[in-house]
Write a structure and sequence with these properties.
heterodimer; A: FAD/NAD(P)-binding domain; Arc Repressor Mutant, subunit A; five-stranded parallel sheet; 14 helices; B: alpha+beta; FAD/NAD(P)-binding domain; D-Amino Acid Oxidase, Chain A, domain 2; eight-stranded mixed sheet; 11 helices; 27% strand
Chain lengths: 463, 383
């Protein structure tokens, strides 16, 4: 039997921990990552990491970030790591990549997808204005570029990231104009007990809220702005009679899993009612219904970065088990118990910071839902009346919502919720956007060149 | 309408239509408008397979003589889509240019133009120099071409579904997600049964089942050698207008248009599919080859980013012509399938022709060259 060809996609917490386990078993996985350096989004590294200390870059997460980066440095010689590599298709036991101005294929026997997550937005009127960033984007500006998105920043959304980024900005010298959370105090109190699954993390979160208040930042709960407006000297977040003047906005209503590659790899998706989004079907061990395909980390459903490390390791052990290699059962049991603890914690978080479905249903006609194609709520309503789309893929086909460069990664859930509100259907009955290769845009002429260190997709293209 | 609540079927209708592509939906609509009770069964969603996943070419140019009469009839309908289905479906009569890479291919274009003139269709033959002077975005691959001014392109994602909605408004009982399990003779008519046991009787059966057309015909004892054809389609991000016409190339290995939105959309080669589970995917190998050809013909697109690719499931016949007309062996059964990768333009006219055949017993459009008779001579005597 030939040696297994293991491909891991994503060098964040899940991907790095998976690579560590596999390298520890004497295998040499290929680790493909879009980024310049390992760490994923959460532990993203600046172009020259030596310039700024960990404590400043990652704050309370400094030790975790350091541990992950150091693990990576230690195993780097034992794995085949390829940064700046986009996987854009999965078919026939191969991943197609875009790297170095060309495309190529890499065959695999086992595929471990650790593709992470993106911010979930609420398409408030004005969310596409210059100066409005996602919360994740605002944080990356800070971590990777060492800059702020603005001097006076309003944070709008819900979830733990809302408070974390607001605190990080305040500490970095930004004036935080307001933190506006759609989660209600009642929901937060009602679900607080579940936080005991991770008491330290819960305390840290409470600390963030206290610190913001101490700094005099207005923290509003159970509130959703009507709009973000352009003003003579910047932006303003409009909330009832109040206007929070700012020059930038960080916006994010939780996270959503990046599931395109899982879909192309043949992994069915299921609707997660708590997070109101689609996630790949998988067990706690990362196995999926597609043979030889594993998912780990937030790409398998949002449980957070700490859980992602455990899930990456657990999926790698599952892969080793499937290869017939000896695996320490006590170790996998411990990992699964840890993952279960994070799942309990996440259930509480989901209850405290739910997706504001009612707000989605009530968006005004002129709100832009799909920014790639500039499709408004009114457009969706018109298409729904004329052509009666049965699901989100038909809504996309008829009215272009989700038909642009991002393939609905930023509007899919929102379009689905809006269509559900119009038709009265359950969001889960409206399907998930089909992934279509290439999952991210590739220049046409790059498709005619061969990426270094890969097999040509077409033999003639080798010249 | 998706048949989610499994509502009872009518006991008896005038006509049952099997297959909710453009042709089936248009046929059902015309029959309902003529006062007939019609039920249409679509195994998944109307207009979702060949009708919806194709390139979107609205072209008379390049067709075989047997298809030209119905293609001309179709072309007249395309101008009237707003009044028929309430939307122009993105139809743009932008002209269609067929390109030749060699002198030999160019001679083929000249021969076709001569033939088409006999049918009353004029296409202009253009040398490479003239073409490149008028269309300066064309690359050096071009030897010459021919131009049909009345051709164009449209949005295939809208046409079939909007005919389906128009059919429903006309009174058609349209059942989506309703695969037909069994079609059988029942007295002078037919019985159509679904997997869950529900059934309906019909005086007339229309087989517009696309790649599944031969399977439906086989249930009544007719054999057709139909194969699956899955086009490999690619689209780029939107760009400022580069070219207006729709383009084909001799040999058919690449074809391209720029949508009103600005996306450059091109196809070439075949994807893969499994028709038993309605699954079709483009192939990276084919996409990469098509990308190189696309740049060869229009170098200015090289910097555009590809944002999506897809495929679908069409039926193709050994002679690349559809099967259209009354069944040779079963009275009351009408076929329209196997459009072999170029049925999109024809669909609206196929619906009219089928309605003619059902309502009047004949059609003014010459479809003799598309007759099912050419494939099933052995069954004629049996009927």
């Amino acid at each position: 039997m030939s040696a297994p060809a293991i491909v891991i996609v994503g060098a964040g917490p899940a991907g790095v921990r998976a690579a560590e386990v596999l390298a520890g078993a004497g295998l040499r996985p290929i680790l493909l990552d879009e980024g310049d350096r390992c760490g994923g989004q959460i532990y993203r590294q600046p172009p020259d990491p030596r310039k700024r200390p960990y404590a400043k870059l990652y704050g309370t997460e400094a030790e975790r970030a350091r541990a992950l980066h150091e693990t990576f440095s230690r195993i780097a010689p034992e794995i085949d790591y390829r940064p700046r590599t986009l996987v854009w298709d999965v078919a026939g036991g191969q991943v197609m990549v875009h790297a170095g101005g060309g495309v190529g294929r890499i065959p695999y026997s086992h595929l471990l997808l650790a593709t992470g997550a993106t911010d979930r937005t609420l398409p408030l009127p004005g969310w596409t204005l210059p100066g409005v960033y996602t919360l994740g984007g605002a944080q990356i500006a800070l971590k990777a570029q060492d800059c702020l998105i603005g001097k006076r920043v309003a944070f709008v959304g819900t979830g733990p990231l809302l408070y974390l980024v607001a605190v990080q900005y305040a500490r970095a010298g930004a004036e935080v104009a307001a933190v506006i959370d759609s989660g209600t105090r009642a929901a937060q109190v009602a679900n607080a007990l579940g936080l005991l699954a991770q008491p330290k993390v819960a305390l840290r979160g409470l600390g963030f809220v206290a610190e913001l208040k101490r700094r005099g930042v207005p923290v509003l709960k159970g509130a959703i702005p009507e709009a973000i407006e352009q003003t003579a000297d910047g932006l303003a977040v409009k909330l009832g009679a109040r206007r929070f003047a700012c020059d930038a906005v960080g916006l994010g209503y939780g996270l959503r899993a990046e599931t395109q590659l899982a879909d192309l790899a043949g992994v069915p998706r299921r609707f997660d009612a708590a997070q109101q989004t689609w996630v790949p079907e998988s067990g706690a061990d990362g196995r999926t219904p597609a043979a030889g395909v594993y998912v780990a980390g937030d790409g398998a459903g949002i449980l957070g970065a700490d859980a992602a490390e455990l899930r990456g390791a657990r999926a790698a052990f599952a892969l080793l088990e499937d290869l017939g290699k000896p695996v320490d059962a006590a170790k996998t049991k411990t990992l699964e118990a840890g993952i279960a603890r994070w799942a309990r914690f996440r259930a509480a978080i989901d209850g405290m910071f739910p997706v504001p479905a009612a707000a989605l249903a009530a968006l005004p006609d002129d709100a832009v839902v799909c920014r790639c194609e500039r499709i408004t709520v009114a457009d969706i309503r018109r298409v729904a009346a004329l052509a009666k789309p049965e699901d989100v893929n038909r809504l996309k086909a008829f009215g272009r919502a989700g038909m642009g460069r991002c393939q609905g990664r930023f509007c899919g859930e929102n379009a689905q919720a809006i269509l559900a509100a119009i038709t009265g259907a359950a969001p889960s009955a409206l399907g998930a956007h089909r992934a279509q290769a290439p999952i991210k845009p590739i220049p046409l002429d790059d498709m005619t060149r061969v990426a270094p260190n890969t097999d040509p997709i077409v033999e003639e293209a080798a010249q | 309408m998706i048949d989610a609540d499994k509502k009872p079927l009518p006991q008896h209708v005038d006509a049952v239509v099997i297959g909710g592509g453009t042709a089936g939906c248009a046929a059902a609509m015309h029959l309902a408008n003529a006062g007939k009770r019609v039920v249409l069964f679509e195994q998944r969603l109307a207009g979702a397979q060949a009708s919806g996943q194709n390139y979107g070419g609205v072209r008379q140019q390049g067709r075989c003589p047997e298809e030209l009469p119905i293609s001309f009839r179709a072309r007249r309908i395309w101008d009237r889509l707003p009044e028929i289905v309430g939307h122009d479906c993105g139809f743009r009569p932008s002209g269609h240019i067929k390109l030749a890479r060699t002198a030999e291919e160019f001679a083929g274009l000249e021969a076709w133009a001569e033939m088409a003139r006999g049918f009353g269709l004029n296409v202009a033959i253009l040398s490479g120099n003239v073409l490149r002077a008028e269309h300066n975005y064309l690359g050096s691959w071009v030897y010459g071409g021919s131009y049909c001014a009345t051709d164009g392109h449209a949005n295939p994602r809208l046409v079939g579904p909007l005919f389906a909605r128009a059919a429903e408004r006309a009174g058609v009982d349209l059942r989506e997600c309703c695969p037909v399990a069994k079609l059988e003779r029942d007295g002078a008519g037919f019985r159509v049964s679904l997997a869950d046991g529900r059934s309906t009787r019909a005086d007339v059966a229309i087989n517009t089942a696309g790649a599944w057309g031969a399977d439906i015909a086989a249930q009544l004892g007719e054999t057709y050698d139909e194969h699956v054809l899955s086009p490999n389609m690619i689209v780029t991000e939107p760009a400022a207008p580069i070219f207006a016409a729709s383009f084909g190339v001799c040999g058919g290995d690449i074809y391209f248009r720029q949508t009103p939105r600005g996306n450059v959309l091109f196809g070439g080669g075949r994807g893969i599919s499994d028709k038993s589970r309605l699954w079709a995917r483009p192939l990276a190998t084919v996409s990469v080859q098509a990308a190189a050809k696309m740049i060869g013909f229009i170098p200015a697109v090289a910097h555009l980013a590809v944002i999506r690719s897809w495929s679908g499931i069409d039926g193709s016949m050994p002679d690349d012509r559809p099967v259209l007309g009354p069944s040779p062996s079963v009275p009351g059964l009408f076929h329209a399938f196997g459009f072999s990768g170029h049925g999109f333009q024809l669909g609206p006219a196929v619906g009219e022709v089928l309605a003619d055949l059902v309502l009047a017993g004949h059609t003014e459009t010459d479809i003799s060259g598309l007759s099912p008779l050419r494939f099933t001579p052995s069954t004629i005597g049996a009927a």
